[in-house]
Amino acid sequence: MLIWKGWGLLTLFIPVGLSLVMQFAVDFHFGNGFYKSANWPLPLAFLLSSLPVFYLGYILNKKPGRKLMDIETQEIFEQKEVHSFFWIPMQYCSFIILTISILMYLSNIGFIYQK
């Protein structure tokens, strides 16, 4: 089950979409099957996808909210739209994607997990 608010679902779609684009580009340039056999294309796709996720999250979550006032207490509240994925704001999800990219690359070259 996926949980998101606002445009937070882009946190999932951007890395998956960029991975597919990277697969087509790498296989077209280096030949069929290179994407699956090489160590670097998928971690690079995740690394590159963390940038637009951070930028979009930062831009969308910094928009000012609507200020409302409670008539009885004269207290002012700010109602703001949040863009998050699993309760984590989009711009912070980019650091998780970046960490996954680094761990994936280290695993692929045999630094973390050796077969």
Architecture overview:
The protein is an alpha+beta fold and 115 residues long. It has a domain of 79 residues. The chain is 57% helix and 12% strand. It has four helices and five strands. A three-stranded antiparallel sheet has the order 1-4-5. The protein has a two-stranded antiparallel sheet with strand order 2-3. Strand 4 and strand 5 form a beta hairpin. Helix 1 runs antiparallel to helix 3 and helix 3 runs antiparallel to helix 4. The longest helix is centred in the N-terminal third of the chain and has 21 residues. It is elongated, with a radius of gyration of 19 Å. The two termini are 32 Å apart.
Would you spell out the secondary-structure blueprint of this structure?
Blueprint: E1 4-5, H1 10-30, H2 34-37, H3 41-61, E2 66-69, E3 76-79, E4 84-85, E5 88-89, H4 90-108
Antiparallel strand pairs: 1-4, 2-3, 4-5
Strand percentage? 5-15%
Distance between the termini: 32 Å
Order of helical and strand elements: EHHHEEEEH
Question: How many helical elements?
Answer: 4
Q: Tell me the major beta sheet.
A: 3 strands, antiparallel
From the alpha-carbon coordinates, what is the Rg to the nearest angstrom? 19 Å
Side-by-side strand order of the widest sheet: 1-4-5
Structural class: alpha+beta
Mean pLDDT: 91
- Uncertain parts: none
Shape: elongated
Instruction: Summarize the amount of helix as a percent range.
Output: 55-70%
Could you tell me the number of beta strands? 5
